[in-house]
Design a protein that fits this description.
Structural class: alpha+beta
Helix content: 10-25%
Order of helices and strands: HEEEEEEHHEEEEEEEEEEEEEEE
CATH topology of one domain: Elongation Factor Tu (Ef-tu), domain 3
Strand order of the largest sheet: 3-10-13-12-11-14
CATH superfamily of one domain: Efflux pump adaptor protein, beta barrel domain
Number of helices: 3
Strand content: 35-45%
Shape: elongated
CATH class of one domain: Mainly Beta
CATH architecture of one domain: Beta Barrel
Distance between the termini: 74 Å
Length: 348
């Protein structure tokens, strides 16, 4: 009897559990959202259009001076005159520094006197050899002495010239490393001279794009400091060697002006407007769902969203080229796809 009661309790408990689970399932199913097939989903649409597909391509670089050198002393001595200050604008041939040259001038006077004497000896021996008063060898020795004296004179003249240090070209003194009374040695740095009458924009171009540039090619250059202005540039150099990342330095020469002065170290960019397709079917990027390998779009047909497989080609920041799957003028859905199913009613 006791076993029968226990069995009945177990059966009743199982029954109650099954009934409770069934009731819970009904409640859960009632709470599940089901699309009303007659309710239209709000979407935004667009058209498949035929257009030229363009993609601007930009290369960013930094401006460098057209010319920049470090002026060095070419002789030893003390600076007795300073012709520049840091930041000065100088012209070609303008004095940078004058080194004490008194001793060289004295030596030059002696060398000049020696040279004059040897020239006089040559003339004297030439006349004497004509009358056979002296041997030919005496004239040859006089000529050799004259050449040695001339060489010594020219060396001193060159050394004297080197005591006057001048700017080799026009530019701006961007650094000055000496002062009045400084004692210089040959090779000592004096100043840095920078020429920005023109500037060079240096950009790094990837291997796949390097053939777009030719030496002498005219290009437009944009800058951040003058955003409203385009500067005319010319490709002046294309490197014959790339770096480890297969990028090739390209120099673009840009004329400078006082009105819109470009300075070394500023950023500049070159923009090419590449035509990817002359005339092709396109859709906005927003219309695409799925992946680039398996692209799909929703097309509106008879007021319903129809999911369609397509093939895409080149792309820009805004559009994709459509190779197959769509026709010009068809209506596609641009937003609201997350709420769509194939065949559902839509409205704009």
């Amino acid at each position: 009897m006791k076993k029968l009661i226990i069995a009945l309790v177990i059966v009743v408990a199982i029954g109650l559990t099954a009934w409770k689970l069934s009731e819970n399932k009904k409640v859960a199913e009632e709470k599940v959202y089901r699309n009303d097939p007659n309710t239209k989903v709000l979407v935004k649409t667009g058209k498949v259009i035929l257009q030229e597909l363009r993609q601007p391509q930009t290369w960013l670089g930094t401006f460098e001076p057209n010319r920049e050198i470090r002026i060095l002393a070419e002789t030893n001595g003390k600076v007795v005159k300073v012709g520049i200050s840091e930041g000065d604008r100088v012209s070609a041939g303008q004095l940078i520094a004058q080194v004490d040259s008194d001793i060289l001038q004295y030596q030059l006077l002696a060398a000049q006197a020696n040279y004059d004497e040897t020239q006089a000896d040559v003339k004297r021996y030439q006349n004497l050899t004509k009358g056979e008063a002296v041997a030919q060898i005496q004239l040859e020795k006089a000529n050799l002495a004259a050449k040695a004296a001339e060489s010594q004179l020219k060396v001193l003249q060159k050394q004297l010239k080197n005591t006057t240090i001048v700017a080799p070209f026009s530019g701006t003194i961007t650094a000055k490393m000496f002062d009045l009374g400084s004692v210089l040695g040959a090779g000592a740095p004096l100043a840095q001279l920078t020429d920005i009458s023109a500037v060079k924009l240096v950009i790094n171009v990837p291997e796949k794009d390097i053939l777009k540039f030719k030496e002498g090619q005219s290009v437009n250059v944009a800058t951040d400091v003058f955003p409203e202005q385009q500067f005319a540039g010319r490709v002046s150099m294309i490197s014959a060697k790339g770096d480890n990342a297969h990028n090739y330095p390209v120099q673009i020469l840009v004329s400078n002006s006082n009105a819109n002065l470009l300075r070394a170290g500023m950023y500049g960019s070159v923009v090419f407007d590449n035509v990817l397709s002359a005339s092709t079917l396109t859709i906005p990027r927003a219309a695409l769902i799925g992946t680039a390998k398996q692209p799909q779009v929703y097309v509106v047909e008879n007021g319903k969203a129809q999911l369609r497989d397509i093939q895409i080609g080149a792309g820009t920041n805004e559009f994709y080229e459509v190779i197959a799957g769509l026709k010009e003028g068809e209506t596609i859905i641009l937003s609201g796809q997350v709420n769509l199913e194939n065949g559902i009613l839509v409205r704009e």
